[in-house]
């Protein structure tokens, strides 16, 4: 017994404990010095925990809200109690919650190098995506971004032909009797999958044509992709306790997805030499990337990442917009009126940019229902955030290395002090005056800002125009309120169940269809989103 207390092992352990305690004392002292030097004040607004050490109460509460699809709604309520920046405990560590534009700007842009995406995201998304733009930090991420970017810079005017091909397939699936209910959100998810696969690797999955792809590999890929994605999301949300949930089928799903993608990568590599010899224009994103590397795993990883980033987000944007349109005939009418000059013809890429009111509607949808409503970053070194400290919350706050910063775009986009008393209302006209700054960040900002923002808006505007041209009226197909479904992206749990009346069918309960002239006419307004402050 004595030897256990006084032997060499016990001595070593006591030395280690003393060294640990001493280093903690030094660390706290250094942090105090840094805080004083940078004018930091304490973050006074703190979540009222029952479990003040581990913060399990808040974690369990949040997990319950995620399950009940009320997490965002409750985060808004919390923001009314705790303000725009507050702290909480999460598994024994401090977590900062903020929806202050200045703090978001610091994390995304001004102090970009002080923050990284979380270990949970890196670990769980890498299982499916490998090392890619979406699942890495630092030099690896920089390399991915540099490789992907040129493909996004190519003139995409010809994409409207591909948009049109898939829009036509989608319209065929919409009942034309002016009575049946159709879930447009489901069709938008299929549309963006077909369009994305067509544009990124040159072969559509044809998910809008079930008859064509019965028992096909494409269908097996899609099922495996959905299953694998779900595992990634749930594991990230539960991290580090993810092992509590069953991982059954995850590995098999990943193998199916990756095998399917490898075929396209191999084809692109075969085409590479042909494209080089003929100096022909690359047809797909993958062709463009294959010019830069022949690493098959890298190409597959980036391809999967872009598909993941592009597909659900754009589909959810469209689903949310049409959910609102079905309840707002006034907005539908104004949009219809704006596109009259096209006289039913399909718009060109340039004409899409003329649609000011339609773009305001996109913005308003992105504001109220952002597809990525919560972002988390971890401080990679001791740093500060510019606001949140002191009694008035206006002083900088200290953010020690390892602290998680939870940034809530949903709360930011609904702040009444920024958007006015009608912040919760869908009112496109507010965009005539609203500033495009760090108060509106549906595509994030800084060096990691969305690479596909322009493409997403063009695609969404195009399909909206074509639906407005084909249907003269839209009505809600159910009485549900919008409710969050938070996965990789946030969409409406109840979908967009609507009834559409074709332009050539007489609607029994029509709305007043007198054209409404927009104040200011149709002038070109290129809607821009907060740009990077560092070159990306
Ligand atoms: C409405 C549609 C879309 C929304 C709301 C959206 C939003 C976002 C957001 C918020 C991020 C940052 C995520 C983070 O920092 O963790 C992001 C990243 C990204 N998005 Fe999008 N996105 C959309 C469509 C697209 C499309 C169509 C593409 C591709 C064609 C795309 C490609 C990407 C890529 C590659 C990244 C990773 C950028 C990086 O980490 O450097 N997105 N997107």
TrEMBL record:
Keywords: Heme, Iron, Metal-binding, Monooxygenase, Oxidoreductase. One of its GO terms (molecular function) is oxidoreductase activity, acting on paired donors, with incorporation or reduction of molecular oxygen, reduced flavin or flavoprotein as one donor, and incorporation of one atom of oxygen. Belongs to the cytochrome P450 family. It comes from the Eukaryota. The keyword Lipid metabolism does not apply. This is Cytochrome P450. The keyword ATP-binding does not apply. Gene3D superfamilies: Cytochrome P450 (1.10.630.10). Heme binds at residue 450. The lineage of its organism: Eukaryota, Fungi, Dikarya, Ascomycota, Pezizomycotina. Its cofactor is heme.
């Amino acid at each position: 017994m004595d030897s256990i207390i006084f032997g060499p092992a016990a001595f070593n352990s006591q030395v280690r404990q003393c060294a640990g305690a001493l280093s903690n004392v030094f660390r706290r002292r250094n942090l105090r010095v840094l805080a004083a030097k940078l004018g930091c004040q304490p973050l006074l607004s703190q979540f009222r925990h029952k479990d003040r050490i581990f913060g399990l109460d808040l974690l369990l509460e949040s997990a319950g809200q995620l399950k009940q699809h009320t997490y965002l709604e409750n985060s808004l309520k919390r923001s009314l109690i705790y303000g725009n920046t507050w702290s909480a405990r999460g598994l024994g560590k401090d977590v900062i919650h903020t929806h202050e534009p200045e703090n978001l700007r610091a994390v995304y842009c001004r102090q970009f190098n002080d923050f990284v995406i979380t270990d949970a995201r890196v670990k769980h998304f890498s299982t499916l995506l490998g090392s890619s733009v979406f699942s890495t930090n630092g030099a690896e991420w920089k390399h991915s971004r540099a490789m992907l970017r040129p493909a996004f810079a190519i003139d995409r005017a010809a994409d409207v032909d591909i948009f049109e091909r898939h829009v036509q397939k989608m319209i065929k699936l919409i009942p034309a009797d002016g009575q049946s209910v159709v879930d447009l959100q489901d069709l938008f998810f299929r549309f963006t999958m077909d369009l994305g696969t067509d544009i990124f690797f040159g072969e559509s999955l044809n998910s809008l044509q079930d008859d064509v792809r019965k028992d096909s590999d494409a269908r097996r890929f899609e099922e495996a992709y959905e299953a694998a994605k779900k595992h990634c999301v749930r594991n990230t949300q539960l991290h580090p306790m993810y092992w509590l949930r069953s991982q059954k089928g995850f590995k098999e799903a990943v193998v199916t997805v990756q095998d399917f993608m490898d075929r396209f990568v191999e084809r692109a590599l075969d085409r590479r030499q042909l494209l080089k010899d003929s100096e022909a224009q690359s047809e797909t994103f993958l062709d463009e990337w294959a010019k830069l590397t022949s690493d098959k795993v890298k190409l597959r990883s980036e391809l999967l990442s872009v598909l993941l980033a592009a597909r659900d987000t754009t589909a959810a944007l469209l689903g949310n917009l049409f959910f609102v349109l079905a309840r707002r005939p006034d907005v539908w009418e104004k949009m219809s009126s704006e596109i009259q000059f096209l006289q039913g013809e399909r718009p060109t890429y340039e004409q899409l940019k003329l649609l000011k009111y339609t773009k305001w509607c996109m913005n308003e949808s992105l504001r109220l229902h952002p597809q990525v409503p919560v972002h988390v970053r971890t401080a990679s070194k001791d740093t500060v955030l510019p606001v949140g400290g002191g009694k008035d919350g206006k002083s900088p706050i200290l953010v020690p290395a390892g602290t998680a910063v939870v940034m809530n775009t949903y709360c930011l986009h609904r702040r009444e002090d920024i958007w006015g008393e009608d912040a919760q209302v869908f009112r496109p006209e507010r965009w005539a005056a609203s500033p495009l700054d760090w108060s509106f960040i549906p595509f994030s900002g800084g060096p990691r800002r969305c690479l596909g923002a322009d493409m997403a808006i063009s695609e969404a505007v195009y399909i909206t125009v074509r639906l407005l041209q084909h249907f003269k009226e839209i009505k809600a197909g159910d009485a549900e309120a919008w409710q969050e479904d938070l996965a990789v992206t946030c969409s409406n749990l109840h979908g967009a169940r609507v009834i559409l009346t074709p332009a050539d069918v007489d609607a029994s309960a029509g709305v007043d269809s007198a054209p409404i002239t927009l104040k200011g006419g149709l002038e070109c307004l290129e809607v821009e989103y907060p740009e990077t402050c560092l070159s990306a």
